[in-house]
């Protein structure tokens, strides 16, 4: 698994595999790319900072700050 944050586009990419992508599906700000066999290959999170802030609210404050600093 590999992660990358593109600060210019505020997008986070999470590679689950290096296999070729056949198609993608988008739901709100998350795009999942699939292989020909319907296996998830890549997850893209658009508006990643907002996503991280919204979904880390349940974490303790010190953990949340560490996560947001690393993005």
Describe the structure using short key phrases.
five-stranded antiparallel sheet, 5 strands, alpha+beta, 71 residues, single chain
Write a structural description.
It is a single chain. The protein contains two helices and five strands. It is of the alpha+beta class and 71 residues long. The protein has one domain. Strands 1-2-5-4-3 form a five-stranded antiparallel sheet, with helices on one face. A hairpin with a 5-residue loop joins strand 4 and strand 5. The longest helix has 10 residues, at 61-70.
Question: Considering DSSP H and I runs of 4 or more, what fraction of the residues is helical?
Answer: 25-40%
> Could you give the count of β-strands?
5
Mean pLDDT figure: 85
> What structural class do you assign from the helix and strand content?
alpha+beta
Largest sheet: 5 strands, antiparallel
Radius of gyration: 13 Å
- List the uncertain runs: none
**Helical run tally:** 2
Q: Which sequence of strands runs across the widest sheet?
A: 1-2-5-4-3
Taken together, the total number of domains comes to: 1
Shape: elongated
- Could you spell the SSE succession in H and E letters? EEEEEHH
**What fraction of residues sit in β-strands?**
35-45%
| Gap from first CA to last CA | 16 Å
